[in-house]
């Protein structure tokens, strides 16, 4: 089989220009190792940071070459998590959603590559200035947190702005056609989340995986519901599988009727959303 060789495959020493997104809790050691062993690059989802989970999942990855990803602002509250990861000298550490400056030098000083997920050109510029070895250009189609620019126009803009840095496209890419399109836009590969969530090796619960497989794209909802749920119940693995009623009005009470995949129960919660709240702020 002919292989695609890009700057990303060269740099990460992988066979296929496909990275596993560090989905909090879902991208565990088993899934990350499976992706790496299949020739891509698995990144464990360190997410908001749970020391015990992270240590266990890095162990579970065994001798597979995997990286670790963090939600930067959350890890910054407990930088010990990063130290713990760097002690193991991972090939790469990925940072998303936050200021990379306090951590970039530390990551690179142990020889790990720095992968930065960005949503704006300003962030891309900042990441490159702080030594990013790889940029992940995340469009608004992405699962999880994000901002507003769509993947298709954002990727080439990042490529043009950072011509010397390999770029992986993220957001709405789920198959070879998406990879081909990303390469045509000038990217060096892709970072894939939702599609891998639906795989057998992923840590997500089966009901959520079924929903991804059977769900229709037309039913996609983009909202701040997940974040509100995390804030209400603490851990993000209490995934909101679907919401029945949302009445999002700035400054109004938002009624969320959610099914919790962890507790397998329905919960109602009422939260006051501050005026002006948007996904951009979250
Ligand atoms: C369930 C889920 C959880 C995610 N959690 C994280 C996370 O903890 N850290 C992070 O950097 N990105 C996270 N992401 C975003 C991914 O890094 C990536 O941008 C996204 O999955 C790409 O879009 P796709 O889901 O359409 O493939 C998450 C995505 C999903 C679907």
Q: How many discrete structural domains?
A: 2
Calculate the terminal CA-CA distance, rounded to whole Å. Answer: 43 Å
CATH architecture of the largest domain: Alpha-Beta Barrel
Mean pLDDT: 83
Shape: globular
CATH domain topology of the largest domain? TIM Barrel
Radius of gyration: 18 Å
Spans of at least 5 consecutive residues whose pLDDT stays below 50 are 235-282
The main pleated sheet reads as:
8 strands, parallel
Bound chemical compounds:
flavin mononucleotide
Structural class: alpha/beta
Write out the strand line-up for the largest beta sheet, numbering strands in chain order.
1-8-7-6-5-4-3-2
CATH homologous superfamily title of the largest domain: Aldolase class I
Portion in helices: 25-40%
Q: What is the CATH class designation of the largest domain?
A: Alpha Beta
Number of helices: 12
Write the element-wise H/E pattern from the N-terminal end onward: HEHEHEHHEHEHEHEHEHHHEEE
Got a strand count?
Answer: 11
Report strand %: 15-25%
């Amino acid at each position: 089989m002919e292989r695609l060789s890009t700057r990303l495959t060269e740099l990460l020493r992988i066979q296929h220009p496909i990275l596993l997104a560090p989905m909090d809790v879902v991208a565990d050691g088993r899934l990350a190792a499976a992706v790496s062993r299949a020739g891509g690059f698995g990144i464990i989802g360190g997410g908001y940071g749970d020391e015990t989970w992270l240590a266990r999942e890095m162990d579970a990855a065994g001798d597979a070459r995997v990286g670790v990803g963090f939600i930067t602002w959350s890890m910054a509250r407990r930088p010990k998590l990063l130290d713990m990861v760097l002690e193991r000298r991972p090939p790469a550490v990925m940072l998303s959603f936050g200021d990379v400056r306090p951590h970039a030098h530390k990551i690179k000083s142990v020889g790990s590559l720095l992968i930065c997920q960005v949503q704006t050109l300003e962030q891309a510029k900042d990441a490159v200035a702080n030594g990013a070895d790889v940029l992940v250009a995340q469009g608004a189609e992405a699962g999880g947190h994000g901002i507003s620019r769509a993947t298709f126009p954002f990727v080439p803009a990042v490529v043009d702005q950072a011509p010397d840095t390999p770029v992986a496209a993220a957001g709405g890419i789920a198959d070879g056609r998406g990879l081909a399109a990303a390469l045509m836009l000038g990217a060096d590969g892709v970072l894939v989340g939702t599609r891998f969530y639906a795989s057998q090796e992923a840590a997500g619960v089966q009901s959520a995986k079924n929903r991804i497989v059977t769900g229709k794209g037309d039913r996609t909802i983009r909202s701040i519901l997940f974040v509100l749920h995390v804030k209400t119940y603490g851990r993000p693995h209490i995934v909101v599988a679907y919401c029945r009623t949302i009445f999002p009005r700035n400054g109004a009470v938002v009624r969320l009727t959610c099914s919790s995949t962890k507790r397998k129960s329905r919960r109602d919660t009422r939260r006051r959303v501050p005026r002006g709240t948007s996904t951009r702020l979250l």
